[in-house]
Amino acid sequence: MNHILKYCLISSLMLGAAFNSFGQSLDIKYCDMDNWVRREIKESAIIGGNDKVLYEIGKPDTIKGAIPRVIGDSQWETSSVYAKVAGIHKVSSTVFPEKRGNGYCARLETRLEEVVVFGIVNLKVLATGTIFTGSISEPVRDSKNPMQKLMQGIPCNERIKGIKFDYKAKTGGKRIKSTGFSKADLPGKNEAEVAVILQKRWEDAEGNIFAKRVGTAWMRIPNSVDNWINGFELSVHYGDITKTDYYKDYMKLYNNDHVICGKNKAGENKQIIETGWGSNTDEPTHIIIRCSAGYGGAYVGAIGDMLWIDNIEIIRE
Q1: What is the C-alpha end-to-end distance of the chain, expressed in Å?
Q2: What is the mean pLDDT of the chain?
C-alpha cells in the first residue's frame, strides 16, 4: 500500500481544527447550538463506499454530495471534516447535534475511526470532537501538519469578561495516540477542556502573523459530570498570568511546540507566534473560543470520552 493512499485514508481523521480583517465588534451566531447543517457524503468504494453524515453549526440546511463546505454566516467550525486525496473521498464525524429540551446541544465525541481498504488493510485513527471559532478549508487534501489546517480565531476588539455555557462530560478515559501508522499509550487520564484566548495580532511585511496574548480563560474537566451544569461562568484573566495561582502550564503562549494557525490578509495559512503577554490595557483583535472532548492535539484522546456543550454566551462588563 503506497504512502499516498495511506495519507488519503487518514487525512480526514486528523483533527482534534479566513480571517482577512483585524478587529471588530464581537457578534457570534448560533451559540445556542440549535441550528445545524446536515451534509450527506458517500465515501469512495475503495474504503467501503459508506454513506456518512457530517454536521456543522449554522443555518439549517441539508447538503447532499461530496461538496466542500461553503463558509456562510457561521463563525463556528467543528472537527468533523471531509477529505479528498488522490480522488478518494473520506469523512470523519466527531461532532453531533443532540436533542435537549425544545432544542439541541452539541455532543463532542472521541472516536477511533477504522478505515478498511479492500477488506484487507485496516487503519485505526483517533479523532477528538472539537468546536471552535474559526474555519477549516475543505476538502482536506493531506495529513501533514494537522494542527496547521485549523484556522483558529475570529475578529474581536472587545475586552469581554468571560463566557457562560451549559455543559456535562464523560471524561477520565485512558489516553492514547493513534495515527493510523502507530498506536501508543500515553500517561494520565483524559480531560475535556474549554478555552477562550484573546489576542492582539499583526502582520509583518512578509505576511507572517504575530500576536500578544491579551486575555486567557481556560478550564479542564478531569472527572465526568453526569448532570447538566447550567450557566457556568468562565472568566477571562488579562495580562501576564504566569505569576498568578490561576496559571497552568497548558495555558502557555503559542509557539513552535504549542501551535495555532490563521490566515493572513493575503489568505495564506500561517502559524501564529505569540511573542509575549499583553498589558492589562491592550485591546484584542481576535478571539478563539474552543471546546474539546480531550487535549493534546491531533490523534490524541480517550476513546468514548465526550463533552456536551450548549447555550454559549459572551459575558460583557
Answers
A1: 57
A2: 88
What is residue 216's DSSP assignment? E
User: What pTM does this model have?
Assistant: 0.89
Question: Is 136:150 a contact under the CB 8 Å cutoff?
Answer: yes
What are the angstrom distances between the C-alpha of 282 and each of 152, 157, 158, 235, 316?
20, 10, 10, 17, 16
* Contacts of 205 by beta carbon, 8 Å cutoff, 6+ apart: none
In terms of DSSP bridges, do strands 130-135 and 286-292 run parallel, antiparallel, or are they unpaired? antiparallel
Q: Which three cell numbers stand for residue 262?
A: 490563521
For residue 139, say if its preceding peptide bond is cis, omega within 30 degrees of 0.
yes
Rounded alpha-carbon distances, angstroms, from residue 164 to 39, 49, 173, 263, 293: 29, 41, 26, 28, 18
Q: Amino acid identity of 45?
A: A
Please give the grid coordinates belonging to residue 310: 450548549
Per-residue pLDDT reduced to its tens digit, 53-67: 999 999 999 999 998
Instruction: Read off the pLDDT of residues 125-138 as tens digits, 9 standing for 90 and up.
Output: 889 999 999 998 88
Which percentage of the chain shows pLDDT scores above 90? Answer: 67
What cell was used for 111?
472516536
Q: Cα dist. 49→5, 45, 90, 112, 116 in Å?
A: 16, 4, 9, 19, 11
Please name which of 287, 165, 291, 294 lies closest in space to residue 238, comparing C-alpha atoms: 287
CB of 205 within 8 A of CB of 247? no
Closest CA to 21 of 203, 246, 215: 203
User: Of all residues in the chain, what percent are helix, strand and coil, respectively (each to 5)?
Assistant: 5, 50, 40
Partnered with residue 90 across adjacent β-strands are: 83
